Amino acid sequence: MTKNRKALLGRLLKNRLAQLNLRSLVWSKLYKPIISKKMKKIVNLSIALILVFGTVVLAQPDGRRGGDRRAGDPTERAKRLTTSMTELLNLDEDQQNQVGDLNLEYAMKIRESFQGNQGDREAMRETMVTLNQEKEEKLTTMLSEEQMQLYQEKKEEFRKNSRERRGKRRGEKDSTSE
Questions:
Q1: What burial class does residue 41 get, using C-beta atoms within 10 Å of its C-beta: 0-12 exposed, 13-18 middle, 19+ buried?
Q2: Measured between alpha carbons, how far is 125 from 131 in angstroms, rounded to an integer?
Q3: Are residues 124 and 117 in contact, defined by beta-carbon separation less than 8 angstroms?
Q4: Residue pair 58/52 in contact by the 8 Å Cβ criterion
Q5: In this predicted model, what pLDDT tens digit does every residue of 76-132 receive, in sequence order?
Q6: Is residue 153 one of the residues assigned to a domain?
Q7: Within 13 Å, how many C-alpha atoms sit on residue 34's CB side?
Q8: Based on the domain organization, do 84 and 166 belong to the same domain?
Q9: Pairwise CA distance, residues 77 & 110, whole Å
């Protein structure tokens, strides 16, 4: 190789290296921060979404509406109802046992009716009405007149309150949809 050729090759090599250094400099100063900023935004957004959806999922009680009071286990519902009736009506031990057995029996019947009539709201409603009437007839034999009167008053008060709550929920839905 001649001397001129070596010099020419050396200059080309230097120019190429200079271009590569310039490219890497441009890459590190311009493009790399843009990508890292985008990546930071993507990572932060992903973390925020995971936290939000994780919180929402954990806030749902076993996929059921209403939390504990509507839990699917009839024995638990019967126990809670018996406890509240005991406190409200001052039941003695014998009455507690009778009412507890009655509540469990009807909680099981209600569960069976819901499983048997899924999707048919009218059939479920009719079944619930007849089951509640049967249960109240049996309750009259277990409770004194004063206890039964207090039970009826509290039941009516509960119905009134639940209608008001339902009306408020429907009113809120109507106002938000307008």
A1: exposed
A2: 10
A3: yes
A4: no
A5: 988 998 898 888 888 899 988 998 999 899 889 888 887 777 777 888 888 888 988
A6: yes
A7: 5
A8: yes
A9: 11
User: H or E stretch including 81?
Assistant: helix 74-89
Residue corresponding to tokens 């469990």: 104
Residue 82, CA distances (Å) to 10, 28, 29, 87, 143 in order:
97, 72, 73, 9, 13
Q: pTM (2 decimals)?
A: 0.53
Nearest Cα to 105, choosing from 82, 71, 129? 82
Residue 21 in tokens:
């250094």
Judgement on whether residues 71 and 29 belong to the same structural domain of the protein: no
Same-domain check for residues 86 and 130: yes
Look up residue 59 and give its two tokens.
């806030």
The span from the CA of 1 to the CA of 114, in Å, is: 96
**Number of domains within the chain:** 2
